[in-house]
Amino acid sequence: MTSSTSPILQAVAERQAAWSATAGKLKARADRARTVVLALGVIGAVLETAAGTLLAEGAKAAAAWTGACCLALIPVISSRFLGRAKLELWTRARSASESFKSEAFKFRAGAAPYEDPETAESTLHEAMSRIDVAMNDIRHETANVDYRAKAWSARLTVAEFIEQRLLEQACSFYRPRASRYKARSDRFRAVEFGLALVAAALGAAAGAGLHVQVDDQPLELAAWVAVVTTVSGAFATHAMAARYDRLVGTYLATANRLETLALRVQRTSMAVPSPAWSAFVHECEEAISTENESWKTIWAEKLA
Predict the structure, then answer these.
(1) How many other β-carbons are positioned within 10 Å of the β-carbon of residue 190?
(2) Is the Cβ–Cβ distance between 184 and 242 less than 8 Å?
(3) How many other β-carbons are positioned within 10 Å of the β-carbon of residue 37?
(4) Does the residue 288 lie in any domain?
(5) Nearest Cα residue to 91 out of 284, 296, 298, 301
(6) Do the domain assignments include residue 2?
(7) Does the residue 259 lie in any domain?
(8) Which tens digit of pLDDT belongs to each residue from 13-36?
(9) Measured torsion, CA atoms of residues 80, 84, 89, 94, in degrees rounded to the nearest 10
(10) pTM for the full predicted model
(11) Residue 143, SS3?
(12) pLDDT per residue over 196-219, tens digit each?
């Protein structure tokens, strides 16, 4: 059974979409900043080493100055876009989006405290107002953000709740996101391993006393061992800062839990509304909330 949406539910949908788009914007900004920091670190290390060991006299000063500028920009960009306040903006925006969505699904499922049709909308309005008040200090971040709110039906059947809340969350968000982050983690590991092999080869050549010349200038292999090791470390730091491995495990564990909950309720007959149904819906929302708190904890480690 589905029914037309209600004005209060649509207002919740608008706020959820706005905060979701805002969180996406803030996370994309942080991701771009981390990528820029990685690039600056690599370019700076290469240019500084090249200026001292490889380039002709005419190019040494330019390479050294450019490399120094790249390295000097890293703390500036990190503090401006990757500091505590900026990352907290993103996590709070995402939490607000998930809070609005959770209340909306409890309302649509007819679970406590929304089981009474006479008071359900006023109770949802109160919940919406509480979340609104908590986000007043950063509401300006939602300005000029493009979003499209979904038209949520006012009530869901058991089957619709399972499909739209549990399976869609597990199969359309958690598992695809885990696969994406696993692929990124694997790519960074491959690059890091390749650079480690290059550093090992250069170190062996330097230890064996091998002499290499580039444009009639001797190449100081020991210096390039150091720069390759530095670049490898920069890639490892980038991957660690993005928390890929930790997030993959969290997403997959939550997807498994939601799918298990869906299988459990599909084997039973449950009246709606009822205390048993409310308990089940709250268990589902708790599973998603636990995941939200988990990734917030993971990212908070960067801020500690």
Answers:
(1) 11
(2) yes
(3) 22
(4) yes
(5) 296
(6) no
(7) yes
(8) 999 999 999 999 999 999 999 999
(9) 130
(10) 0.86
(11) coil
(12) 999 999 888 888 877 766 666 666
